[in-house]
Design brief:
The structure is a single chain. This protein has a 7-stranded parallel β-sheet with strand order 3-2-1-4-5-6-7, with helices on both faces. Strands 10-9-8-11-12-13 form a 6-stranded parallel β-sheet, sandwiched between helices. The chain is α/β, with parallel strands linked by helices and 377 residues long. It has 2 domains: 8-179 and 360-376, Glycogen Phosphorylase B (Rossmann fold, 3-Layer(aba) Sandwich); 189-357, Rossmann fold, CATH 3.40.50.2000. It is built from 15 helices and 13 strands. The longest helix has 18 residues, at 340-357. It has helices at 19-33, 75-89, 99-112, 127-130, 139-147, 157-166, 189-195, 216-225, 243-251, 267-273, 288-294, 308-311, 326-337, 340-357, 360-375; strands at 8-12, 37-42, 56-60, 93-97, 119-124, 151-154, 173-175, 202-208, 232-238, 258-261, 276-279, 300-303, 319-321. The structure holds ligand GMT. The site of ligand GMT has 21 residues, from helix 1 and helix 4.
């Protein structure tokens, strides 16, 4: 920390389209805007990281591919890079986003670093607890890394509860919710709808990495069950290949109801073109996609799982259904098609909630408090 209290923070995260990397990037950019230095560690530049700020740095981690190794190792090169930069730049904190392997690599880096003041903050994002935490190949290493983190945070109460159930963390766990800073859409709603071939349908947006936990099967089945499906279009903004789901899309004859997109335009453009979000995950510690839509006055329909009920207020700023109840979700959609005023009212409430609870102004100070707590240990 310098004389004016500005920190040097290392941030380890995944670079791809996924909530933890997106949140870590947004946090680093906000910290830089407040005069702190943010040093990112990853194997590629995080997709939403803007390197134009003189206080944001990216330290790529390269992995050596030795013939002896059946599987390439990333954890040790990451730890070495973090230790080198911690020494060279006098980092105060390493903030690990997603425990595996970032928290473990941070612990090794701390032990290797020549300076002994380095502190570790670990933010658990979801499946690092709920999936890998239950995997005997990982559980013990994650628990050990959490015990040796100076501060541990989760992105929702629900994830804190799961974390307590699965691990002996050995210290209190802080809940620091995710935040989002909406950018300005680059084109009008009308222009974007035209580009996507949308007319006057009710437009649903699903933006995710399409991993199995997102239950794209239930998403498609919900749409297939809508009586008014001819008046609905589902835009899927895919962070990964849609190929595994194509057969079901064909079987359900939804080809003309679904618009598949890759990240060609900023997320803001897609949200602006939509009317509602739709998420059918079987587990979700938070669901950043729902929050992003809320900032643009678009509410979401989702199953009542994990931390989603903490993001939206059931019935007021979004609609929740028991997990797997595609019939109930489809019925709600059929009603919303004929009730644009309700769609707008839900969206307006969603925007108010997002702006009251989930802005950078509200959330970033909570992370700064975590850093202060870590440094005072
Ligand atoms: O935990 C994961 O599966 C990955 C992670 C990610 O990188 O996208 O997603 C989690 O973190 C996001 C950001 O905090 C949350 O919005 C997601 O709800 C959460 N995913 C799950 O819990 C399945």
């Amino acid at each position: 920390m310098d004389a004016s209290g500005k920190l040097k923070i290392g941030i380890a995260c995944y670079p791809l389209v996924g909530g933890s990397g997106i949140l870590a990037s947004a946090l680093g950019m906000e910290l830089a805007a407040h005069g702190h230095e943010a040093h990112f560690f990853s194997y590629a530049k995080p997709v939403r990281l803007d390197l134009s700020s003189p206080k944001v740095f990216f330290h790529p981690v390269s992995v050596s591919r030795y013939k002896l190794f059946e599987y390439a190792d990333y954890t040790l090169p990451l730890a070495v890079k973090m230790a080198e930069i911690a020494d060279h730049e006098h980092l105060d904190i390493i903030h690990a986003h997603y425990a595996v392997p970032h928290a473990t690599a941070a612990y090794i880096a701390k032990r290797m670093a020549k300076q002994d003041k380095l502190r570790i903050v670990t933010t658990l994002h979801g499946t690092d607890t709920t999936l890998l935490g239950r995997d005997p190949n990982y559980r013990r290493a994650i628990e050990y890394s959490l015990q040796h983190s100076d501060v541990v945070t989760t992105v929702s109460e629900s994830l804190r509860h799961d974390t307590w159930e699965i691990f002996d963390v050995g210290k209190p766990v802080q809940v620091v919710p995710n935040f989002f800073t909406p950018g300005v859409p680059t084109q009008t709603r009308a222009a974007m709808r035209e580009r996507l071939g949308l007319k006057d349908e009710l437009v649903l947006l699903h933006a995710s990495n399409l991993r199995s936990v997102k239950r794209i099967d239930l998403l498609l089945r919900t749409l297939a069950r809508c009586r008014c499906r001819e008046r609905i279009k589902l835009v899927i903004l895919a962070g990964d290949s849609f190929d595994p789901h194509q057969a079901l899309l064909d079987e359900l004859k939804l080809g003309d109801r679904v618009v598949l997109c890759e990240n060609e335009y900023p997320i803001e453009d897609y949200i602006e073109a939509s009317d509602l979000g739709i998420y059918t995950s079987e587990a979700e510690s938070f669901c950043l996609g729902i929050l992003e839509s809320m900032f643009f006055g678009k509410a979401s329909l989702a199953f009542r799982v994990g931390g989603i009920p903490e993001v939206m207020e059931e019935g007021a700023s979004g609609l929740l259904f028991p997990f797997g109840d595609t019939a109930a979700m489809a019925e709600a959609l059929d009603e919303l098609v004929d009730d644009p005023a309700r769609v707008k009212a839900l969206g307006a409430a969603a925007k108010i909630r997002a702006e009251q609870r989930f802005t950078a102004d509200v959330v970033v100070p909570k992370y700064l408090d975590c850093y202060a707590a870590a440094l005072s240990r």
